[in-house]
Amino acid sequence: MERITTYTANAPITSTQLNDLQDVTVGLVSGSNANVLSAPGCDGCEWQSSAASLSSATQVKVDASKDWRDRVLTVAYYAPSGALTQPGGANDYQYDYNSSLRKGYTGRGALDAGSADPTNGNPPVPAAGVSWAMEVATDIWLYASTVDGALYLYNDTVGTLKTPILSINATAPTGLRP
Predict the structure, then answer these.
(1) More confident of the two residues 2 and 125
(2) pLDDT at 25
(3) Which of 48, 117, 146, 155 has its CA 20 to 30 A from that of 24?
């Protein structure tokens, strides 16, 4: 987003300036009738792994700037077949892809099969009422940490992923599983 105005300490803010901000701000409203997702607002996250690859049976932290628990996520996911396709990479001219689109709920976060936080070699396992993870592609999991709400991507495939890409739109916390 580009800055509209630069303010200094104790500078007056006019109604015209506030209206200008509203005109360029992107917003999301919740439907007002019979809506279980009544929390107003949304968060977004664009991410592409800075590592050349994500090995099998490993996880990577996508974002820790907010608590991603108790949100409904709409996720576009793609893993390029070649390396260095990220913007600025040698093959960034190939940064044109058709992603898979998924929608899921992060609940109170994910646990592994032993009811512990997922770690390398121990993927998240969704389970009714205790563990939430969304499978953005076959054996590729996106989940929130039960401890701090950080968002993680887990590669549970038998192969290595090349610089996976996520575009995430999330509701505000729903308040349904705080």
Answers:
(1) 125
(2) 65
(3) 48
Q: Is the pLDDT of residue 1 over 50?
A: no
Query: How many beta carbons lie within 10 A of that of residue 49, not counting itself?
Result: 18
Specify which residues 104 forms β-bridges with. Answer: 73
| Rounded distance between C-alpha atoms, residue 107 and residue 141, angstroms | 14
| Maximum CA extent, the chain | 59
Per-residue model confidence (pLDDT) at position 133: 98
pTM for this model (two decimals): 0.83
Distance between CA atoms of 144 and 128, rounded to whole angstroms?
16
Say how many residues make up the chain. 178
**Would you place residue 119 in the very low, low, confident or very high pLDDT band (cuts 50, 70, 90)?**
very high
The DSSP string of the chain is ---S----TT----HHHHHHHHHH-------SSS-S-----EEEEEEE-SSSEE-TTEEEEEE-SS--TT-EEEEEEE--SSSS-STTSTTGGG-----EEEEEE-TT-B--TTSS--BTTB----BTTTB--EEEETTEEEEEBTTT--EEEEE-SSSPEES-EEEEEEEPP-SS--
